[in-house]
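HUMAN: You are asked to prepare a plain-text protein record giving the amino acid sequence and the backbone structure tokens, both parts labelled.

ASSISTANT:
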Amino acid sequence: MSIRRLIPVAALGATALLLPFMPALASSHREAPFITEQPKVDGTDFYMFNSYEPGRAGYVTLVANYVPLQAPYGGPNYFSLDPEALYEIHVDNNGDAKEDITFQFRFNNKLKDIALKIGAPGQEKQVSVPLVNAGSITAGNTGNLNIIESYTVTMMRGDRRTGSAQAITNSATGASTFAKPVDNIGNKSIPDYARYAASHIYNVDIPGCSGTSRVFVGQRKDSFAVNLGEIFDLVNTNPLGAVDGEKDDLADANVTSMILEVPAACLTAKGPVIGGWTTASLRQARLLNPRPGFGKPAIEGGAWAQVSRLGMPLVNEVVIGIKDKDKFNASKPQDDGQFADYVTHPTLPALLEVLFGVRAPTKFPRVDLVTAFLTGIPGLNQTTATAEMLRLNTGTPVTPASHQSNLGVLGGDNAGFPNGRRPGDDVVDIELRVAMGVLLPVTDALDGQRPYTDGVLVNAGMFDNTFPYLKTPLPGSPN
């Protein structure tokens, strides 16, 4: 069934409240002025989908990616996460655009301080090494790691700050602290990174939830695909060209992922549909230390201030005006009415009309965008709230990877975007086509049925079919 058949014209016309969405052309990498100064808390992509690994029916996988544009060779300090930050995945399970369940990730980086004896015999001095490892690392031997990264996961029920908090624990040991693998330094340092990383997949117990959940936090190959340079050079590509006719500018980049698999029954409350989004927050006060030591370049305190937000892909980067980008990152879905002007008269179709001569939709206001992306699709994943968040019907049967359409619901695959988001869903092409009016009558969008694309191919075949789904990160040295 196509998305057009799922959204009757009457339902489109009945939606009265317009909120911020207008499909864009790049993922949320460096999407707002302030977040460019804080790459460790820059959320890049959020995925939420019914697990399609064989034998994992009834589970939902949540993926929050952070730290954009990681060069694999980005040593010597690589891309550890911020111990002073709070990373969160929020779930709304009653349709009011407020979090009911929050998974909070906190990080700790401990210096082992490996030292070598340097100097003439009898006059040696112990001198600290300058690298994050002093020898090779394997799944069974991490003794040469100089910095030990670890994290905790806390489940909040109710308000993210005032609700009840319970630790998620290791099913095998009962521990509440988990080891995070070091980034993929290179093939000499870590000869078998895939096996090493897999040793950091943990079965976990979530309070109040039955079944075995899983968690993995670590570096992955960047899962987004886009010709980033050309898109931001006034869309310097052919939007009607071949879907595999452009290079992926993120093909040589890694990202850091927080991946959690949870029983669907643990996430739902009033029906099978949930909403989700990620945030990252920093302390309001920061005092720089004039005599910093390891891990103490500053003293931070005060209340948490949200600096990153990501639900539906692509929103803040080219939808929200520059003056409001930082404001959007600090906002909550329940307050999205303040950004209404950015969807009422979207600018991207007009820009494409000027640049390429294609005819932009003439239907205003663009209520079709509200239904598809801000309220959910009637009969599939609609909720009562009108807000920017990713929605998933946890009761939708999964589509095996080999049969997935990378156009999701537009391609007749109701298990895909915008019913959640899987790694292989081509959200750029989907949203580009919706922006140009594929959901509108032809009389309101004369060129709305054309196969718009950014030219970069992405599909399920480019990812693993098992948890954690995202590919092993590229090594800093392939030799």
